[in-house]
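Q: what does this look like with magnesium ion bound?
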Amino acid sequence: PLVLGIETSCDETGIGIVRGTTLLVDAIASSVEEHARFGGVVPEVASRAHLEAMVPTIQRACETAGVALTDLDGIAVTSGPGLAGALMVGVASAKALALSLGLPLYGVNHLASHVAVDIVEHGPLPEPTMALLVSGGHSSLLLVPDVTSDVRPLGSTVDDAAGEAFDKVARVLGLPFPGGPHIDRAARDGQITIDFPRGLTAGRDMERHRFDFSFSGLKTAVTRWVTAEREAGRGIPVADVAASFQEAVTDVLTRKAIDACREHGADHLQIGGGVAANSRLRAMARERCDRAGIQLRVPRPGLCTDNGAMVAALGAQMMLKGREASRLDLPADSSMPVTLVRA
Ligand code: ATP
Ligand code: MG
Ligand code: FE
């Protein structure tokens, strides 16, 4: 099936077109620069930007792929979770397309899409798949028997998401928003000189929260360290702090993910979401998975951060597996739970 996917859960207007398991085009318009001076995404600004970018981005995607709207077999859209107003623009656009073209509409979960996009990169997912989802709003270990119908959380963050920690620490270091890519870049010139805390990895905490994460203590530790240096009149070694912080995050993520694989007998690990674009996380996961005899699957960085291809990829899976389409009155669900794959 030829499926067009629409993603508008945050600040990226993403339009992807997938034929079966083949990605034809991934077109993106981002309003990230309009938000940068506020140090975070401004929902109202994001919604307006989606409205302006929607039609031109659909046209650009179709032209690039050499596809006419009348060639399509289905429409997929992010139904949630995300910013309510931003989601509404995508959902309303998808309904208009589905209704006017007489096509089935699939309202899919953004988080399941972060996992499903790996199919257009590395082929069918093993069943079940062990997935580490690390993004701006979520950090979870998921056992996924079938990405079109069943996602089971083994654990998740008890406070901040991994991406959120990157963004907050970047702010403390005076790096621009969104901070993840800037920390990644800064850390390349740094040394791991500071031993920052690894949350929920020892003692009773670990027993009670084997597959959960906590990053707010780490963020506080970095803030304290930086403040103490400033008060002592010393300059901040930004690259070293970035490298040390990044090491603490990736150490915890990879350790727990590999433990989960072992406990559940998974011979592979899939990593998805914006933080999966991080170069140190990718390298450490590669190293540790190799050592543990686990096959690692991570999409190219451009498919880890938000995009339309991931939505089209999951929509195409829905059609391939004969799943029922969504109703045309499907909602934009800003707090859609990870366990609900299709609205
Ligand atoms: P969610 O998917 O939970 O709804 P989101 O869609 O806003 O959240 P994503 O686009 O999946 O999040 O990921 C964005 C996050 O990824 C941001 O926090 C950003 O800083 C982080 N990120 C992007 N690139 C990198 C990188 N190279 N290293 C670390 N973090 C990164
Ligand atoms: Mg974004
Ligand atoms: Fe996302």
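The mean pLDDT is 97. The longest strand covers residues 22-30.
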